[in-house]
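wait is this the right file?? whatever heres the structure
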């Protein structure tokens, strides 16, 4: 009898412990300067044409504040990114065909984006499921060796278990906490973990069947980080074809951060094919764009995905971090979540009458040294002032009605 009572008490204690899931957040909201290093962590600089689907997004909101994210080219006129990146923004500056911020092949501006309907755009700083968005370009991209689309995870693989498989993340995250944004595109190997393992860390509120999580490959600090939100998670098929299997969404928050060894979370694009088609009119499951004079990504760019060992993959730039880890099992602790965007600041509402600003670091509104962005901001200045004045006027009228 006493033995049965002991096991019941132990089981109850275990349930109480595992219920304390680690907190989560978008990376741009992480306030602990000692918790992360704000970049693609423990990765390498990309070579020309290595990640031709990667784009850099700079968004401007209603009060002229700038935020940075990543995205992926999935069609000559469509990009995929995170919904928390586009929510509450009034214009987006897109750089495409680049491995360095100052040398893009194309720069475009757009104001047309679509957040997945279940994502509450009035709460963009709160981690939510289905954090995915489509961005439409006003003119088609011109494909080249350094610029091309990536195939979206097929609907048949929408909820595939990628546990222990090698994936690749990339982005233009900042090079240190609150420092300058990385000018070079960086990438890192990660190892996918199963959804049950990820749920045991972050809980079922934010980890759903539409989530894919990935932890470090062989060095615990390998991770996505600030500025990488909306960017790609790529898995290479046995035939050597890269597929977009995840969109960067959030990481462990609180005192954990990007380099803690805890997994990052991404949104699977596979479950959203019906919505993609509804918005774009394109069947991405059977998309076959004409890509003349475009070379494919060299197979040597990515690791052999059939390998499940923790042996370090040969790279041109050896890691300078700790020696390879011998275990890839997920942590038994529970964790908080944060998301990887280089947001200077995101507004918390799309309505001009209720615009709020989330808490942020003092230097979140970074000094602009980007000629294209400076020109864009100048052209938006009058428009923004008018909207702000209208917001104040409507708010005043609303208060008068209440009185």
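ok assuming it is, sequence goes like this
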């Amino acid at each position: 009898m006493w033995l049965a009572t002991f096991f019941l008490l132990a089981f109850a204690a275990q349930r109480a412990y595992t219920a304390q899931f680690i907190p989560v957040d978008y990376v741009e909201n992480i306030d602990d300067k000692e918790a992360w290093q704000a970049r693609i962590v423990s990765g390498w600089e990309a070579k020309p044409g290595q990640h031709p689907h990667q784009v850099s997004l700079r968004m401007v909101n209603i009060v002229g504040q700038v935020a940075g994210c990543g995205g992926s080219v999935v069609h000559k006129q469509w990009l995929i990114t995170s919904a928390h990146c586009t929510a509450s923004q009034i214009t987006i500056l897109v750089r495409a065909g680049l491995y360095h911020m100052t040398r893009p092949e194309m720069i475009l501006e757009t104001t047309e984006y679509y957040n997945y309907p279940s994502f509450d755009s009035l709460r963009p700083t709160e981690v939510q499921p289905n954090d995915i968005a489509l961005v439409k370009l006003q003119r088609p991209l011109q494909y080249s060796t350094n610029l091309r689309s990536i195939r979206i995870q097929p609907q048949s693989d929408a909820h595939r278990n990628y546990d222990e498989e090698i994936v690749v993340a990339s982005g233009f995250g900042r090079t240190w906490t609150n420092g300058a944004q990385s000018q070079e595109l960086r990438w890192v190997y990660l190892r996918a973990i199963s959804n049950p393992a990820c749920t045991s860390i972050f809980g079922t509120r934010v980890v759903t069947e539409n989530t894919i999580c990935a932890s470090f490959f062989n060095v615990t600090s390998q991770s996505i980080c600030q500025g990488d939100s909306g960017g790609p998670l790529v898995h290479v098929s046995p035939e050597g074809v890269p597929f977009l299997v995840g969109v960067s969404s959030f990481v462990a928050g609180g005192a954990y951060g990007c380099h803690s060894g805890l997994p990052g979370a991404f949104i699977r694009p596979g479950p959203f094919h019906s919505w993609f088609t509804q918005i774009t009119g394109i069947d991405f499951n059977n998309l076959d764009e004409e890509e003349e004079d475009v070379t494919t990504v060299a197979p040597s760019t990515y690791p052999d995905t059939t390998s499940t060992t923790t042996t370090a993959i040969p790279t041109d730039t050896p890691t300078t971090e700790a020696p390879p880890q011998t275990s890839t099992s997920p942590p038994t602790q529970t964790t908080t979540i944060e998301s990887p965007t280089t947001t200077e600041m995101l507004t918390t509402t799309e309505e001009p009458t209720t615009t709020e600003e989330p808490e942020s670091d003092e230097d979140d509104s970074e000094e602009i040294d980007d000629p294209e962005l400076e020109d864009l901001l100048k052209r938006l200045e009058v428009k923004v002032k008018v909207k702000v004045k209208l917001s104040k006027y409507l708010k005043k009228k609303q208060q008068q009605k209440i009185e």
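The CA atoms of residues 144 and 294 lie 5 Å apart. so i think its the right one actually
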